[in-house]
From TrEMBL:
PANTHER family: TPR REPEAT-CONTAINING PROTEIN PA4667 (PTHR45586), TPR REPEAT-CONTAINING PROTEIN YPIA (PTHR45586:SF15). It comes from Lentilactobacillus fungorum. The keyword Disulfide bond does not apply. Keywords: Repeat, TPR repeat. TPR repeats lie at residues 204-237. SUPFAM superfamilies: TPR-like (SSF48452). Pfam families: TPR_16 (PF13432), TPR_6 (PF13174). This is Tetratricopeptide repeat protein.
């Protein structure tokens, strides 16, 4: 038995001190091929420091061996020694048989540095040199998948699958293809691939994609079952709860949906979107006070979230708590972060507390975007009628009647104005 094999056996048996001694003996006495194999085995086991020692020894003996340089570059990347890795890779010239491999390792390095354009250039150069090499096609597909360029990833995964390659580097390509289709909204194509994956081979992310795809296809029975399966296997996967709750709402199981979203709150108390969804579902369930409580909690976590702000404002308007709405929205106006819907809510609130000029200003602000909204037009017309501005009242009444001609009361009011 060689010293290298002895060292590996000792390492497998947990005899670390004995391994160190045998490793040194192997380094001094085993032949080059045996040492190279030992370095590869140690690297695969996570003992890259020892691999590095062997590769450096061999490189001194074979300074033109580009394979050794690339191996050392990979170890340097693992150790966050990027400059050292680049130094090794730069020594591999274009006429080297290992040049394509060096491009792949370079691409990995630049991707870790978030230099995505350079990383892509390296991969495309490798593909140009070896257009049919599956490893290169896979590396490029994974690059596009990781950088969310799913359309390009799809083409590459399809090429690999059509050639009979269904898995590489322990990555299921059918899974990748299904997820990619789902991410670009092609749910019919996605489901065809995702359903091929055996449940035992699905991780939480893929289970989510499957459930999410059913959800987007409005196959709510299957969506609920898939989300519940994910919840049972990974209850900490907080993203599932709002979608599971929505699927239950669409199945008219609102009370169950509220319980589900409350489970989500318990799992992730700092996710404002879960609080938002809880507020919306509590309102559907007729629990108005609970709805406001949840929405306010969401705003406490994310004070700049305009969607939650709007839901709270709508709640105040619906419950005629106009002063509370002004307290909520007036600071937003000062920060100049605003939209037409909130301007409408402000206008109604100022109108209710008797601040006519401010109400008028906000009705005019809202009109730029809500000029074809019947609800807005009706409120604006009634406001100007109350304020005694017949000209403005006629303008908004006319637009409203054009949209809602069967509102006889408002039509009669318009006829009265026309006779003034």
């Amino acid at each position: 038995m060689t010293y290298s094999q002895t060292a590996l056996d000792q390492l497998e048996g947990g005899q670390l001190e004995a391994f160190k001694q045998s490793f040194q003996l192997a380094l001094n006495h085993d032949d080059d091929d045996m040492l190279y194999s030992l370095a590869e085995e140690l690297y695969s086991l996570g003992f890259s420091t020892y691999s590095k020692t062997i590769y450096e020894k061999l490189l001194k003996k074979f300074p033109s061996d580009d394979n050794l340089k690339i191996n050392l570059a990979e170890i340097a990347i693992d150790d966050d020694h990027d400059d050292q890795a680049l130094n090794y890779l730069s020594q591999v010239t274009k006429d080297s048989p290992e040049y394509v491999r060096s491009l792949l390792v370079s691409a990995d390095l630049y991707q870790t540095q978030e230099l995505f354009e350079i990383s892509e250039q390296k991969l495309l150069e490798a593909r140009n040199l070896a257009p049919d090499e599956p490893v290169i096609l896979f590396a490029l597909a994974e690059f596009y998948f990781t950088t969310r360029n799913y359309r390009k990833a799809i083409n590459l995964y399809l090429t690999l699958i059509k050639s009979g390659t269904l898995e590489m580097s322990q990555v299921n390509l059918v899974e990748r293809l299904g997820v990619s289709y789902a991410e670009i909204g092609k749910f019919e194509q996605a489901i065809g691939y995702l359903e091929q994956i055996k449940p035992v081979n699905m991780n939480s992310d893929v289970k989510f994609e499957l459930a999410f795809t059913y959800f987007n296809l409005k196959d709510d029975q299957k969506a609920v079952k898939a989300f519940e399966d994910l919840r049972d296997s990974d209850p900490q996967y907080s993203s599932l709860y709002p979608y599971l709750a929505d699927a239950l709402v669409r199945l008219k199981r609102v009370d169950e949906a509220l319980k589900v979203i409350q489970e989500g709150i318990a799992i992730d108390q700092y996710n404002e979107k879960i609080w938002q969804k809880a507020g919306q579902i509590a309102q559907m369930a007729g629990q108005e006070d609970l709805s406001l409580k949840y929405l306010l909690k969401g705003r406490e976590i994310a004070p700049d979230d305009m969607e939650i702000l709007t839901l709270i404002s709508d709640w105040y308007i619906a419950h005629e708590r106009y002063s509370d709405n002004l307290t909520l929205l007036e600071p937003v106006v000062e920060d100049q972060v605003f939209d037409a819907h909130l301007a409408f809510n402000l206008a109604r609130s100022y109108q209710a507390v008797g601040k006519t000029k401010l109400a008028a200003n906000n009705y005019e602000t809202a009109a730029h975007e809500l000029g074809d909204n019947p609800n807005f037009l009706k409120h604006a017309a009634l406001f100007y009628r109350e304020a005694g501005n017949i000209t403005k009242e006629k303008t908004y009444l006319k637009k409203y009647i054009d949209l809602v001609p069967d509102d006889l009361e408002m039509a009669s009011m318009y006829d009265e104005d026309m006779n003034i």
